[in-house]
Amino acid sequence: MTELARGAKPGQNHGKATVLVVDDSATKRYLLVSWLTRAGFTVVEAETGGEALRKLDDAAVDADLVVLDVKLPDMSGFEVCERIKTDSRYGVLPVIHVSAHAVDVNDRTQGLNRGADAYLVEPIEPDELIATAQAVLRYYRARQRAELLAERMVKLAETTLAINSASTLPALLEAAAAGAVEIFGGPVVVVAETSEGESLAAAGPPPAVRKWAVPRHRVAVGSLVRTDEPADWDVVEWPAGESVAVAAARLRIDRPAVYVAVSGSSQTPGFPVLRQLSQAVAAAVEAQRSFDEEHRIAVTLQRSLLQSKLPDVPGVEMAVRYEPAGAQTEVGGDFYELTVLDGKLLVAIGDVAGHSLHAATVMAELRHAVRAYAVEGHPPGAVLELANRFMRTVLPADSATLCLFTLDPATGRIRMASAGHLPPLLHVDGEARFVWPRGALLGLDAPQRAELELELPPGGTLVLYTDGLIERRDADIDDGLRALAACAAEVEPDLDTFCSRLLTRLGGSGEQADDIAVVALRRN
Asked: What is the Cα–Cα distance from 238 to 205, expressed in whole angstroms?
């Protein structure tokens, strides 16, 4: 049984249906077979109810309709009809009862109540038999098309949800191809271009994404469905003699089309579900392309706002790392600053709340404000108070964390203040410990941030970082701090190597969810 009926496919021509005639009278069976054959039907015969059920079980007998006598030698036609209607092996199969004898209303009612679709009584006219058979088949085919469409629409909704939940274009195409296999069966190909112009195809089953370009066709804005040769879509193997139904959807003139290709025999007239699937894929691809482009622009802007060259400070080694969040995440507001002022090294690291282009621009304003206040000669605690006043006046809807200190390279003396930022990690003589300056984050009306003084001895290393390095949604922040302390128990001679190891070990696998900034200093 297919999802339409035994032997029926969505795109098949139903003009030559197969009828199983069941009657124990050879004469009557001959007449029924003759009339149906002349009308263009393919006819299979059975003499008893048992023989009819056995033939329906036979895969070689692909019946679309059963013409069934009421009185049979082994069982009643009513019982045969009821078995056909209640046994899922026979699928949705229409039955027309015929009777050689006049029967009362109760018998006709019993036949219809037990599943028959029509009841003809002698004398049966050939035209009446043919018209009844055609009417019953028309109804069933319409019903089967409606049921198929409803089933496919449910699967289309599930597929649309899956493709819109995908975080990357390859995952989106794979979800679309998997959904198309569920909807239509057989081989499928879904093709779209990335924002960089690379053409990707998800082909299956099972769906796998690879580089593959569609043969060039002019596609106007909108959608269309065409029939192609399998050779044009040789990224998968198509059944022999199969055509390929290709839906192309293009939402903008400056964007390439998205394609969904399936077996031509899987389609119903008008290609309604295939069209809607291609349009849903095109809308999701367009959103993904736009996000990828905006994310790339935002990351480029963010990197341009960060310090590109570190100062040269005799007696102090420095290394920094900045890694933006994964492609599916908006840019954040992480930043760092290292500047020499009046012979001392000014170091700042901070994180503006939120993930957006706005957060990146707030980061740039705050970084420049901190540097300007420091140039005026204010100590770290006073710089934080001025930066807090700046944010509450100019950026009242935003907040940020910030750790700021000055380092005297000659003595190693550090003067530090913090506005809600994570504690720096100090590594001295093989021991790592956190330094805990206290203070509320910027953007709040809070008491003045206190300063903390400490010394960085020769050989000592100080590590500053943002929350992307240690925070995980499924773990407590204290677990992240302990992991950082364990990872920093040893510091490589080369600070760049040390910072790279921190990112590799602590940054996690796969797409990272937050920006990461790391600053490491060592006094020689």
From this structure: 11
